[in-house]
From TrEMBL:
Gene3D superfamilies: Membrane associated eicosanoid/glutathione metabolism-like domain (1.20.120.550). The keyword Transmembrane helix applies. It is found in: Membrane. Pfam families: MAPEG. This is Putative MAPEG superfamily protein. The chain crosses the membrane at residues 82-101, 107-126. GO terms for cellular component: membrane. It comes from Bradyrhizobium macuxiense. It comes from the Bacteria.
Amino acid sequence: MTIAEWCVFGTLLLSLLTIVSVKWAGIRGFDNSKPRDPDFYDDPIRSRALGAHQNGLEAFPFFAFAVLLAEFRVGPLRLIDELAVLFLIVRIAYVFTYIGNRPTLRSILWSIGFAINIAIFLLPAIRGYLAS
């Protein structure tokens, strides 16, 4: 497996760990028989963690598709790997800024992550213009 493919897996795990960590931290208030109980997410940190989790699930398909498409269409593998690692780092920072209630920085990081996804997606189309 390539580094980029491991980053796809890491991005999925990050999304899951974002919500699991809050459920474990609030184990006394969390009822597993009602995992979507809105009362559990009344706490601001839990609510923001849920938002970060949901955004991670929303961002995941485009990232996974972009990586797989770029690799399938024989984009420059090293650049795909580097951009995928950068995307994962940006997503980790995004989760921390979301939970830490830093909306401006969070939006900037989201935009950077989206731009990285577009770059990965377009790599096969521009590979002829890139230096070897």
